[in-house]
Amino acid sequence: MFNLKLFLFVLVLGAQLVAAAPCDIYASGGTPCVAAHSTTRALFNAYSGSLYQVQRGSDNTTTNIAPLSAGGVANAAAQDSFCAGTTCVISSIFDQTGRSNHLTQAPAGGATPGAGPDFLAAADGAPVTLNGQKVYGVFISPGTGYRNDKTNGIATGDAAEGLYAIFDGTHFNGGCCFDYGNAEVSANDTGPGHMEAIYFGTARAGAGAGSGPWVLADLEDGLFTGPNKSGSTASNPTITERFVTAILKGEPGNQWAIRGGNSQSGSLSTFYSGVRPNGYSPMSKEGAIILGIGGDNSDRSRGTFYEGVMTSGYPSDATENSVQANIVAAKYASIDDVSFVVSARA
Ligand SMILES: *[C@@H]1O[C@H](CO)[C@@H](O)[C@H](O)[C@H]1NC(C)=O
Ligand SMILES: *[C@@H]1O[C@H](CO)[C@@H](O)[C@H](O)[C@H]1NC(C)=O
Ligand SMILES: CC(=O)N[C@H]1CO[C@H](CO)[C@@H](O)[C@@H]1O
Predict the structure, then answer these.
(1) For residue 169, what are the domain limits?
(2) Number of folded domains in the chain?
(3) Does 184 qualify as catalytic in the annotation?
(4) Ligand 3 atom 4 nearest Cα
(5) Which Cys residues form disulphide pairs (predicted)?
(6) Which residues are 35's β-sheet partners?
(7) Is residue 307 annotated as a catalytic residue, yes or no?
(8) For 317-326, how does the pLDDT look when each residue is reduced to its tens digit (9 = 90+)?
């Protein structure tokens, strides 16, 4: 008798054996990663360098956390050991592309004049599992932020780029702005079109359907679901998943898109694809990278980041769909689900 379950299992196993990591997939699609950030896993199959750095409170020393093997998940045990009996913060999130687009403590900006730099995330703030192995995400509470104002290869002006990020769909607020992506190099608001970053939360401007949270686009001077800033957008749903894959991309010719899906299963949906808001084409992207803050260092938001990339070129939907398949196969799960994961593997 034909065993459907066995057949699907072998199919999935086969897919995993040949599956490339997200940045291998983007490269195959002709839209290579120019920044790749994750505290949970390598985003290239061949990557075995440092993923992130932690600094401990007892003596202010640092250590770098690498994958357990090339292309693998982070060695969280190394963090636990280094941080035992003291506190630790995530001091750097390294760029895996070799372009040194690392994220470090964000300086004060136009929204926080005279303030010191932002806080760093508690290193143990967002434990989850990847295929049953514990790893840590980046837990952003208000006042926390990361930035790089001197990047290499990130889109500027109207140049094409794509982004994805995985967030905790249950950790958010309505403060501005839990973002990941392209922002001003001055940490000041320099006007419409100077940002192209993924936003996640319930800030009302440009809200989607329901009460949120939503995957929105922070294009500066507005969070957008599509061409318009205000009003509810039926195609941009309230996110209810524990892990959300959020996608934003833009290219010359007045074209951009927002997509999203459940990082644990299923495929991506396109929430918007079409023209830019009035006044946003051509774009004036500046090429800095932010995480957890707005382009002017607005830092009143909360959220959790697990991994994300920025590409050169406008990725095809098919490329992004393959990345989503890789994300699902990576098996993100909340720590509450660990007993399930372990027993399922036994
Ligand atoms: C760690 O660095 C901070 C900030 O520079 C300083 O205030 C603190 O005294 C240092 N702690 C130790 C144990 O060196
Ligand atoms: C940001 O704007 C403030 C206030 O306008 C200004 O003083 C500061 O020089 C600007 N910073 C940069 C890096 O341009
Ligand atoms: C209601 C509203 O403002 N709709 C506008 C949304 O954006 C498109 C494209 O710019 C306009 O044509 C609509 O009028």
Answers:
(1) 20-339
(2) 1
(3) no
(4) 228
(5) 23-33, 83-88, 176-177
(6) 310
(7) no
(8) 999 999 999 9
